[in-house]
Amino acid sequence: MVSTPSSPSAPRPPFDPADPLGLDDLLAPEDLAVRDTVRGWAADRVLPHIADWYERGELPVIRELARELGALGALGMSLEGYGCAGASAVQYGLACVELEAADSGIRSLVSVQGSLAMYAIHRFGSEEQKREWLPRMAAGEVIGCFGLTEPDHGSDPAAMRTRARRDGGDWVLDGRKMWITNGSVAGVAVVWARTDEGIRGFLVPAGTPGFCAPEIRHKWSLRASVTSELVLDGVRLPADAVLPEAEGLRGPLSCLGHARYGIVWGAMGAARSCFETALEYATSREQFGRPIGGFQLTQAKLADMAVELHKGLLLAHHLGRRMDAGRLRPEQVSFGKLNNVREAIDICRTSRTILGANGISLEYPVMRHATNLESVLTYEGTVEMHQLVLGKALTGLDAFR
């Protein structure tokens, strides 16, 4: 038997198409403040220019943007101390949504800086390394990059060929890294190399003899992002260039897990931008004498997109609360990255169909987000790798080899 309340219930809030599940109710005022601050910055500094940057295939003001993001506290924002904001995992996730709603390249700049380069130094570096690099990186004065992927070894980093050998009291590095975000503008590179004692991480300052970072051109995705190759030819480093607390693959993989968490949120930002564009277009574009949003097939598309978008945001929020509680597992990050990027791409493609031919124009963000997400789908772990991570967790059987 269902009981009825003795007093009238409070009036239900109106349905909000921008927040159909009422997810904002899960956020504290300080969470909303972070989100709104980053959203306002992106609207002012990125959105008016991003189509032009994308078309030109460059991010000409990357150093200026890095300093502004540092002033916002967005670089290494979930790290503690050394000039970092010490924000919650959920707040960092909300920032990633707003950055990627502007462009995946901007979120990648922040993710690589904070979740890869700074995180590696913060977690595995010496106190001297942390004091030397982290405050300047948090302020955006120094940009960092993360060198793990190689030309012939992406999903299998254990097979890397970059080597570091001891020579007296120094280390000497030889090898190449590929598809490195921020590479050619970085003041310091976190480079992972094979040594006689196993895989180790090294801090390579820009300008070190034998080290260069030529930019990769002719990209059709993440065009408003700096992507480079790292070339190490007899790079000599002092003994204190090694990250002392990182030994084996567990070091770089833990950094990747932190970066993947940001992608779980960020992909929903790109999806949200496309959905909002499609919804606005559907209510203003007329065919056969009325708005196309009044046709059943268009409404079905919009409904399905809204469901997957807000399910993805709810999943990201859940994982963020688990991270803040110290209970987030790598398999759960794979769950989020696999689902949210895959659904984000589908939302972008469906949005393109609603816009018709206009969907391929840079006057709208849809095609730009769709092509960017093709990179997001495979970096920080391909679909297949995350499927196998979950498959192993579910069955207890390792199918990687």
Structural notes for this entry:
The chain is an alpha+beta fold and 401 residues long. It has three domains: 23-138, Orthogonal Bundle (Butyryl-Coa Dehydrogenase, subunit A, domain 1); 144-241, Butyryl-CoA Dehydrogenase, subunit A, domain 2, CATH 2.40.110.10; 250-395, Butyryl-CoA Dehydrogenase, subunit A, domain 3 (Up-down Bundle), CATH 1.20.140. It contains eleven helices and nine strands. The protein has helices at residues 29-45, 50-56, 62-72, 89-102, 104-124, 127-138, 250-284, 296-324, 330-355, 366-378, 383-395, and strands at 144-147, 163-167, 170-181, 188-195, 198-205, 211-212, 227-238, 286-287, 290-291. Strands 2-3-7-6 form a four-stranded antiparallel sheet, covered by helices on one side. The chain has a three-stranded mixed sheet with strand order 1-4-5, with helices on one face. Helix 1 (29-45) packs parallel to helix 4. The longest helix has 35 residues, at 250-284. The chain is globular, with a radius of gyration of 22 Å. The mean pLDDT is 94.
